[in-house]
Amino acid sequence: MDTRKLTLTRKPKSKSKLTAQRRMANMSMAEDLPVENELLAEPICTVGPNQACKHSLANPELNEFLHIYEELIRSRFSAITNTLKTLSIYQHELDFVTHAKRIAFDQLHYELPLSLLEDSWISGLNLRALHSYCIFRSFKECVAKARFDQASWRECIALHTNFIHSCGYHTVNISPCADGRLQGLLSFILRLVPSEAIYVKSYAGAMFNIEEDIANWAHRELERLSGGLPGDEDKNYLKIAVYHYSSSNPSHQGCAAHGSDTERALESALERLNELRAAINNTYGRGAAPDILLIGVDTDIDSIRVHFPDANGDIDPDRYIDSGRIYQESIGMSREAARTYISDALNKAESQSGLNSEKGKMATGMRNLVLGLVEANLSQIEYVIHYHAGRYAVIGHNERFICAGEAMNELHLRNKFYFAHLNTVEEGAIHLDVGIKIFTNLNIKHGLAVPILVHYHYSSRVPGARERVIQRCRRVKAAIEARYSQLHGKGLLYCQMAISDKAGSERCTFIEDEIAEAGH
Ligand code: ZN
């Protein structure tokens, strides 16, 4: 069941028309850096005179809200380059600082630090430092305004926490690849509303840390057993791993951590899931392990493959349902007919001949979850068709910064940042190295620095935690600067430390070196 095969057998469409559409999509995105476009395969559906590409189960209203959100977030980052170019023109004028502050405020809606403006008349503006500062500051703006920015789509998003509960799960812990193209996973690709019950922790190649996952599982199960999750006492914990691939350019634009080898990305993620189950069963007794689910994302078009488990909870990598194929086959059907079609397709995939066919079908809750995820993703496929000409104009990397440490739940958008979950740089080095490799192409090649946001959470309920988390940020920042000392020495690496309170309202407070040093 390969979408790639399907797309190749369909009638070829006018290439010049497609190129024009793509160029327009590129222009409207107003991204800063020149990027290479690839045109190797067809989109799932192309809007044309006789083709509206409207699936009865897609939600155009939700797509509209998400598109407004996407444009808003992109505009906060895309304004940076032009603002800095303007500042660069005026840097030697007498009233530069006043002028610069006004330009920044008009175009970016925040102020720039005086320390980066005042000495420009001597050795010129430090545009690299200003660029990194603006990237962090624009991100902070997105975090500060998240509630307001996201209010419209959070209201009407497809899969709420109640749905997760109705499928029999109190918690869903998702580990996607750290790749920036998966940063819109929750709200865009899976159409899941962010909540307390859903954790996202990204690792290069979806290679999550088993010991940490056991700790997360144990913590959540303890909360459930001690009455901390009222109403969810009889529910399960679900672990999902998300690998990714590129249907247009599978051997170059797939998962960098697995050398763009889709099979390897899939097998490695599944192996990790199985190891987690074995670890918990071996430690806490057979049957204690959480349920597992494996999802693959085609990052060119945001369709998903859901590799579902059998009655024993085991996943056969060859048994899956592909939402791209479902979209193509069920477009034009009524809502009811399309739902029946998806359900039949799942039955067929479940009972297909093979080694595991006799092992029995998955539980009803899991089945409902798989059906819900596939149906919800049809809207995202249509989103890419209508707002990105059927396939993203930039199918490769285009992230703005690296977030190292713990991610915030406040920004949901493809290619905004590469996220490396890490406790220490030694443990997370492999994830950071992949990020630095990506940014060598994206930024360093153009003379820009790599902006790294070192972010951790603390709990204001725990005495002394804030001070400790600041020390932790400082340790990680120093370790990053030491690991990439050559880049740091040349001014090609900027680290910004930030902290958020899990229990209170403090979000993404920037911690400056001198404050941390004063408390040292
Ligand atoms: Zn990857």
Structural class from helices and strands?
alpha/beta
Mean pLDDT: 87
* Ligand types: zinc ion
Count of the separate structural domains: 2
Q: What's the helical proportion of residues? A: 40-55%
Major beta-sheet overview: 6 strands, mixed
Shape type: globular
Sheet with most strands: strand arrangement: 2-1-3-4-5-6
The CA-CA distance between the termini, in Å, is 58 Å
Question: What integer value in Å does the Rg equal?
Answer: 23 Å
Number of helices: 18
Proportion of residues in extended strands:
5-15%
Please give the structural blueprint.
Blueprint: H1 3-9, H2 15-29, H3 60-90, H4 96-108, H5 120-123, H6 127-144, H7 146-156, H8 161-166, E1 169-176, H9 185-189, E2 198-200, H10 210-225, E3 236-245, H11 262-284, E4 291-298, E5 303-307, E6 321-322, H12 323-330, H13 335-350, H14 364-387, E7 401-405, E8 417-421, H15 425-442, E9 450-458, H16 465-483, H17 485-489, E10 493-501, E11 509-511, H18 513-518
Parallel strand pairs: 1-2, 1-3, 3-4, 7-8, 7-9, 9-10
Antiparallel strand pairs: 4-5, 5-6, 10-11
List keywords for this structure.
alpha/beta, 18 helices, binds zinc ion, 520 residues, 5-stranded mixed beta sheet, 2 domains, 47% helix, 60s Ribosomal Protein L30, Chain: A, disordered N terminus, globular
